[in-house]
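User: For my dataset I need records formatted as: sequence, then structure tokens, nothing else. Please produce one.
Assistant:
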Amino acid sequence: MRRLDLINDLLRHEDIEGFLSMGAPGNEYESEAEMIADRIGEAEDRAADHKVTREKVEEIVTGVWKEMFDLSDDELHRRKEAFASVAARLIS
């Protein structure tokens, strides 16, 4: 499975903002998934061993969410468990 497809699947599964459960289309998080995939690729290119840690992926997911949803630090903190879950499943 391509990384982008996996990220899309994980974001749909987590439905971090609850949009899918409110009836939003299945591609609701596609833009965020593309940004996350691109940023992970960039981080891998910069890493000496071309690998990123779970922590780095969580940082990337959090950063994309902050950027796309204009969330406060408190709002991001409330979503931390979901960000960590996405990161852990991507790295496993």
